[in-house]
Amino acid sequence: MPAARPAPASRPSLSERRKAQTRFEIARTAARLFAAEGTATVTAERIAAESGVGLRTFYRYCRTKEDAVEPLLSTGASRWLDSLADGPARLPTPAEFAAAAARALTPRDDGTEMDVMRGLLRAMEQDPALRAVWHRVNLTGEQSLLTVLTGLSPETDTLRLRLTAVAAAGAIRVALEQWATGDAPATGPGSPADLVTDCMHKLTAGLG
Predict the structure, then answer these.
(1) 53-62: long-range contacts at Cβ-Cβ below 8 A with a sequence spacing of 24 or more?
(2) Distance separating alpha carbons of residues 130 and 31, to the nearest angstrom
(3) Domain HTH tetR-type spans what residues (predicted)?
């Protein structure tokens, strides 16, 4: 019998959507500044001012200036989790994992978003607090992926599902980090979407 799909989540209220929009604007501003200048000289006050909010509002949403970027970093994970959840009601094949990941890492604009991501990943090399946010986002994404996979294939043993989640989520993280070390374009050969396909193939080769 096919796995039952989870019930759709209720639509957020207008107030919740406005809060999310404000939080994402703060994240986008912080990421842009960190990518361009690093984190040492960028203050929470500046992020708040360029986001159009007061400092008190900034700290209502973010514990630290590094935490500000978390929603932006989570966006790609959300895209590919949604893509997997909308697929067949079974455990995806390695090829389906790779295709979903490549779609999530394909720029939806002129590449500016990926340029910021590259700068942000490079800034993490000099800021342990920012790097900790990145790893936290990746761990959360891995756990969310495990939840999705369990819903799609509840009869699969837990160990296999956990290994699959670790391999697939790790492939995305490694692809982005590897891309950020060089100057490859956001699309085409050497791009995140191109690299993640290769990473996914290598890391999930024994899990199909």
Answers:
(1) 53/22, 53/25, 53/26, 57/22, 58/26, 61/19, 61/22, 61/23, 61/26, 62/26
(2) 10
(3) 20-80
pTM (2 decimals)?
A: 0.88
**Does CATH number 1.20.1250.20 belong to domain 68-203?**
no
Residues 116, 121, 127: CA angle, nearest 5 degrees: 120
Whether 207 and 94 have beta carbons less than 8 Å apart is answered as yes
- Separation CA 22–CA 29 (nearest Å): 11
CATH of domain 14-65: 1.10.10.60
Residues 19-32, buried b or exposed e (16+ Cβ, 10 A)? eeebbbbbbbbbbb
Q: How does pLDDT run across 76-135, given as a tens digit for each residue?
A: 778 888 888 888 888 888 888 889 889 888 888 887 889 999 999 999 999 999 999 999
For 139, half-sphere exposure in the C-beta direction (CA atoms, 13 angstrom radius) is: 6
